[in-house]
Amino acid sequence: MDKKGLTLQGITGLHALHILNAVLMMATGIYLTTHFYDTLYPSGLGGASTLCDVSAFWNCDVATHSKVASLAGVPIAFLGLLNGLFLIGASLFPSEAYERTASAVTKYNAIGTIALLGFSLVALGGLCPVCSIYYVLSWVAAALFWKKGINSWVPDFKVAGIWLAVTLASGVALSQYTAGRASKLANVSTQVVTQYKSLAEYGDPEPASPFVINASTPNFADAPIRVSVFSDFQCPFCKVVAEQMPQLARRYAGKINIQYFFYPLDSACNSSVKSAMHQYACRAAMLAACDPAKFNEVHDEIFAGQEKLDLDSLKALAEKHGLTACFDGQTTRDAVLASINGATKFNLRSTPTIIINGKKIEGSIPNPHFHAIFDDLLKK
Predict the structure, then answer these.
(1) Helical axes 157-197 vs 96-119, angle rounded to 10°
(2) CATH numbers and ranges of domains, the chain
(3) What is the DSSP letter of 58?
(4) Burial class (CB in 10 A: 0-12, 13-18, 19+), 86
């Protein structure tokens, strides 16, 4: 065919680029839709993937928790998935009518992404990395049709009607799915709060830990939500909790204090443990305890390399952060021992153990359970 069109000339180089671009749009839509449900209506341990939580500015939760994350229970990321699928359809069923509609859709989609980008920067003060990738893919799609395809702002009404019908039908189904997830989560949340209220009251650990994960107030005891984490760097579920804490700190910004206590399951420094269950846990704790100002960074790096944790990796971290001198020092060991002693009144039997406003929870719990407890605490 000799007619102008991005999808009407067979598989050319630009047509192949269009297909790849559409597939990537679908992929980002799938990821963001999954992230939406895992974050707001999680059913598994630890909530959503932290893959795109790069920093306080670059993280997907900025968008996921915003008011524009969904419409009538349907995540707007799902529209990105459908847009990618629709554009692939232009290649599978090439026609002037389909391409004209695809060209119009990409233009309106690009305008929408520019509006979302502005909203994120101005209203949210941050950007979702994967959303940003989708924005760029959307602009590429629009540019391809504008420069090399049928350039149109007006769709073919028959093709557009089919696309709209598919979008509405799938949106209704997804809205019902969202309602089901929300209902299930609400029922579980009520049970979690009831169980939490029935727990024994121990009070917060004393004294407060110098190793702070998040501080909303200068004094630990002054925040409405107070979380103390007793943890071991070689404990797999402790790593899950370590990944949850920044998410909770962002969600309850200004209302939550989180402090860390070392509780290595290693007889080398913990007299309550009768064997070196985790043979590098004490050394890892001593490295993290070297400098409270560097604690968060070192804490995150140790957990990130948990599967390959050994003495060599700890020494490499110590050298990287300029902590070699204190790694084996008595002052550092005393800090770890003081942290371990802080667990005495809680009768710790395992890690992680989490103290929330004086009540002890053994083991890790999913993010929605934390949300339910914290939201109830804030009501008071």
Answers:
(1) 40
(2) 13-181 (1.20.1440), 212-379 (3.40.30.10)
(3) B
(4) buried
Whether 245 and 213 have beta carbons less than 8 Å apart is answered as yes
Cα 358 to chain center, whole Å? Answer: 27
pLDDT tens digit string along 52-66?
766 667 878 778 888
- Residue found by looking up tokens 């960074």 in the block: 297
Q: Given 3-state DSSP classes, what are the helix, strand and coil percentages for the chain, each rounded to the nearest 5?
A: 60, 10, 35
Predicted local distance difference test score (pLDDT) of residue 66: 87
Cα(32)–Cα(69) distance, integer angstroms: 10
- DSSP string computed for 248-290: HHHHTTTTEEEEEEE--S-TTT-TT-SS-SSTTHHHHHHHHHS
Is a pLDDT exceeding 50 seen at residue 2? no
Q: Considering only CA atoms, which of 57, 160, 63 is closest in space to residue 108?
A: 160
Contact call for residues 231 and 300 (beta carbons, < 8 A): no
Q: Cα dist. 47→36, 223, 235, 248, 366 in Å?
A: 10, 24, 18, 11, 6
Let me know the angle formed at the C-alpha of 238 by 236 and 242, rounded to the nearest 5 degrees.
120
Structure tokens at 290: 């070297």
CA distance 364 to 237: 6
Task: Indicate the residue type of 203.
Answer: G
DSSP 71-128: ETTEETHHHHHHHHHHHHHHHHS--HHHHHHHHHHHHHHHHHHHHHHHHIIIIISSB-
